[in-house]
Amino acid sequence: MTVSDKDLIEAAAAIQSQAYCEYSGYHVGAALLDEHGRMHVGCNVENSAYPLGSCAEAGAIAAMIASGGRTISVIAIVGGDEDNSPCTPCGGCRQRIHEFADEHTRILVIDDSKEWKTYSIAELLPASFHLP
Known about the structure:
132 residues, alpha+beta, Cytidine Deaminase, domain 2, 6-stranded mixed sheet, 28% helix, 25% strand
């Protein structure tokens, strides 16, 4: 079974509704495909002790790792409250994605014109930190 970009976007939007965002009200969902073509999803989970919250991308990556995946082929990120709004990954999630991305990884997000745009991790995190 082939998973399309549209399928990933729909999965990210579906899991977005499960976000626990009692403090910001900003729901985020992420869906990714690993190198085996398996889909993994995550949503943001806030905490009253602010630094203890987790991002949707981190949840999807953790699910991927737990099931044996190691490379993100494509990840879709949906964010907002009533309407989806531009929601590129935060700096920490850009680094998380970088850890499991390669030069072919695609990152799908809505841009300011409400159109879906595809980025590479090099575009979102130039001159990134990595260990040799």
